[in-house]
């Protein structure tokens, strides 16, 4: 990934007739050679942003450049630099796979000799050489989507927009498409602008992720940095008892789950005080951000680098002769990030519903 910005927006804004503000002063960059994820709930403004970047609609204000050219001043040139693969598979079912790619290339005015070579290379890339001369009507959904991606690459674009490229596909087909996306970036230097409803997909594929909500960018960074910004990993440790701790708490005291003394309440109080004292010590350990003692002999810790911090915590407890019953390590996910910034979860069924609404509309247009 280089430092060159292949996409750049400055205060990009779109207000539709009637006053609806779909995109509100959005500014970001996409670096050449990266896979850039663009996430947002339905109605957040991501589709409008993409339509402006691909020259399909004009901004109300602000500006956007693709490969250094303004999308309003040079729309024809910009279109030649990019490929676009929509949610709906756009290949012609009556043609063969080979014919679809050849037709797409001729629309870009590629010379026949050059085009035939590229068609062969792309069919090999997406593993469609064997069925290349069969009608697309006989292809599976995954095969059609792979052909659709190949069609978007036929003119060797510098920038490829992939709008929900794996929506509705099984996990095996999705994984294969993930491989193709990585290969396009790694072997051919294609910059990929990806929208998806699958958080795992964004996490595994994207170098950086932008989250848009209510028309504004609310977060933008690497997936790792966005997750780390939530406060670190969560470690939950269930103890048999807190063991001896400085200050006279512990020692010969029985386990927390078997309170002793003049009554059960006194035993609980003594156990909780011992747990609090132990938690205070743990809060001073390396990589620990915060510690919260629980009411059921558990301690919850927010830590940096959970895999490194967990052995430190266990060594400390062992040195205090505290028996550990269980340990759980949970890393923040992009789902957690999305929920934090939008107040909503980006569910798979939300994307699927959008896909089926769009597919029905396309079928009505086709008659």
Helix content class: 25-40%
Helical segment tally? 12
- DSSP strand tally: 14
Strand order of the largest sheet: 6-7-8-3-9-10
Cα distance, first to last residue?
44 Å
Care to describe what's here?
With 367 residues, the chain is of the alpha/beta class. The chain has 2 domains: 5-228, Rossmann fold; 233-330, Alpha-Beta Plaits (2-Layer Sandwich). 40% of the residues lie in helices and 24% in strands. α3 (97-107) packs parallel to α5. The chain starts with a strand and ends with a helix.
Itemize the secondary structure elements and their pairings:
Layout: E1 5-15, E2 21-31, E3 35-39, H1 46-53, E4 61-66, E5 69-70, H2 75-81, E6 82-85, H3 97-107, H4 112-125, H5 141-153, E7 159-163, H6 171-188, E8 191-195, H7 199-205, E9 208-213, E10 216-221, H8 223-228, E11 233-239, H9 264-282, E12 288-293, E13 298-303, H10 306-319, E14 324-330, H11 334-342, H12 348-366
